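for ur thesis appendix - SAM-dependent methyltransferase. copy paste whatever u need, i formatted it the way the template wanted (i think)
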Amino acid sequence: MRRFSAEYLEHTRRGMWEDGRDALADLELSSRERVLDVGCGTGELTRVLAAETDADVLGVDADRELLSVAREESDGRTGYLAGDATRLPVDDDAVDLAACQALLINLPDPTAAVRELARVSGDLVAAVEPDNADVRVASTVDAEERLEREAREAYVDGVDTDVALGDRVREAFDAAGLVDVRTRRYVHEKRTEPPYAEAALRSAARKASGAGLADHRDELVAATSERAYDDLRGRWREMGREVVDAIGAAEYERVEYVPFDVTVGRVS
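the 3d part is after this line
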């Protein structure tokens, strides 16, 4: 399984729930008593589930460093446990909802994880998974749209898991023997506009230094070549400097459209 930093998870997972919780409607949270968040990372979804229900909520992740961050941010209503998504340290039928966010796209065998979620749940299994191949960017810096698309296409080709599962998550649910499987698509909009938040300033600085692109260097090189990556990084840094200048003039705006699918199924 791929590993991520706490900063990366905060950027990609937390913002999804700041605009609303409509995407969680099919999880029937009001009726839940025991909930498990698998691959919880720093606990973004875990805390949302706790806020939306009176249930006991437990997060599980294989990365102990991420779990330490999750525990620091816990308000006491959530618990955390170290464990592998395909070998959960949880008894059969221990919860009535087993959920995950951006977990299956990072696993070589998503169906194995779904089977494990179905084993520990006595009722519902849910997966919130982005479709990284279908992300779109609109920016006042023209080069940003073009370079984001170029980098994304190479990343999808170079990564060793299916990061564009989208609504095909239901295939893993079907293979795991879940019934009444259904999927709904949502699009999360990440907006950057004046006045700029501190996170936007950090993001612009990382573009200008090339650090953001370097996070995915291995995948980009795998899909292209060292020379092509170096060329892309040079153009990326130049674009980043344009972004920094536009922010300084309060003229920069950007919208990232991130589609994600919420798939639910019942244990038969």
